[in-house]
Design brief:
Layout (H helix, E strand, L loop, with lengths): L16 E6 L4 E4 L8 E11 L3 E19 L6 E17 L6 E3 L2 E11 L13 E13 L5 E7 L1 E4 L7 E7 L3 E7 L3 E3 L3 E10 L5 E16 L11 E14 L4 H4 E2 L4 E9 L11 E3 L2 E14 L5 E13 L6 E2 L3 E2 L35
Parallel strand pairs: 2-10, 13-21
Antiparallel strand pairs: 1-3, 3-7, 4-5, 4-6, 4-8, 8-9, 11-12, 12-14, 14-18, 15-16, 15-20, 17-18, 19-20, 20-21, 22-23
Length: 367
């Protein structure tokens, strides 16, 4: 049976509804799985009946589910696996242990609490190949009439302990080129951008730098079974270019030339996608690994005419920031909220997350 979600606090409506109301609209861990502290989460199961109901059971479950789906080597079918790695249950009434209870017309509220350990894996969403998802499931068994079921997702995010960790590479390459690459922050919030500062000084007379190409790459690794990550069995690895920039020196000589030392100095910005799925945060849990890196390619023409290339790879990380939010776990948006959809009587699917309150995911400050 589908019950309507609560509109506002009560909305003046006497329609039936069911909801899981939480003191936090998301769970945020700060630091890695080894260093993050536990988070205390409290909430209430709330529902309204418009007529008395004889209840057999009232249960709430919080589940964590891992899913991996990989194409087979033959290409005929996919290898899929879905498993529950976490479960916490609250049993507010069970007719097998007690007599059935008759609930009167009106609103009903059942509080619950849970401590989530900092070692729990964070949510990984919107990838076709794999996911880590948490959700509440409500089960209300009625002696007469259809049972009530309802499901609501819980988003778990993880942010770094230190945000502004800079990185600088300052080297001489092949006695031809002095370069300095500076990244103000290796940790980048999802939906924002990565800034890179470059200094290049040719050490070889008549060495010509043609262009500097910067690419932000995302590497995804999945294994059907967690213990197969190291062996590589039943696993898959894909690399995607999230953002790319080619800076041609000849086109920008006037603005980037350092005349005093005969070098070049400039900055580039790589913009991240603003939609989960096109890009996801760094993670390494339960056989699902996502990493990011900056790849730099400097193409040069030597005095004798042959071409040389300097290729560098610098690790960076992308995290979901509590100061930005993703509406419905999908696209990165501003502070303006989209309209709330209305659930019709004929719909049998659970109502969308966030209808009864503002979705503050990735927006509130860490506690």
């Amino acid at each position: 049976m589908t019950l309507h979600r609560l509109k506002g606090e009560h909305g003046g409506s006497q329609r039936e509804y069911v909801d899981v109301q939480l003191d936090k609209s998301y769970v945020a861990f700060q630091g890695s799985q080894q260093e993050a502290l536990a988070v205390y989460l409290s909430g209430n199961l709330v529902f309204r009946f418009k007529e008395p109901a004889t209840i057999k059971h009232i249960r709430v479950h919080l589940s964590g589910v891992r899913r991996v789906s990989l194409p087979s080597r033959t290409g005929w079918k996919k290898s899929c696996k879905e498993e529950e790695f976490y479960k916490k249950s609250w049993d507010f009434h069970d007719a097998y242990r007690t007599t059935p209870e008759v609930l009167p017309v009106g609103d009903h509220r059942y509080p619950f609490t849970v401590v989530l350990e900092g070692s729990m894996p964070e949510s990984v969403e919107r990838m076709k190949e794999a996911s880590i998802a948490y959700f509440f499931t409500v089960e209300i068994g009625r002696k007469h009439g259809r049972d009530v079921s309802y499901r609501k997702p819980l988003h778990v995010i993880r942010s770094p302990t230190l945000y502004d960790v800079a990185m600088t590479l300052d080297e001489v390459w092949a006695e031809k080129l002095l370069y300095r690459i500076h990244i103000p922050s290796k940790a980048v919030a999802f939906g924002t951008s990565l800034d890179v500062n470059y200094d290049f000084v040719p050490l070889l007379q008549d060495l010509k730098i043609e262009y500097i190409e910067s690419q932000l790459l995302e590497v995804r690794e999945f294994a059907i079974n967690e213990d197969e990550v190291v062996s590589g069995r039943n696993s898959s690895t894909t690399t995607t270019i999230l953002s790319s920039d080619r800076y041609i020196i000849d086109d920008n000589t006037a603005e980037c030339t350092m005349k005093s030392i005969g070098g070049y100095q400039f900055s580039r910005t790589l913009h991240l996608p603003k939609t989960l799925g096109q890009c996801v945060q760094d993670t390494d849990a339960l056989g699902i690994t996502v990493k990011h890196k900056l790849q730099v390619n400097a193409r040069m023409q030597n005095p004798d005419g042959h071409v040389s290339e300097l290729r560098l790879t610098i690790p960076v990380s992308i995290y979901l920031s509590p100061y930005y939010r993703v509406w419905g776990g999908d696209s990165f948006v501003s502070e303006d909220l989209p309209p709330i959809p209305v659930i019709c009587d004929s719909e049998e699917v659970p109502p969308p997350y966030g209808q009864h309150e503002t979705d503050r995911l990735y927006r509130l400050a860490l506690e």
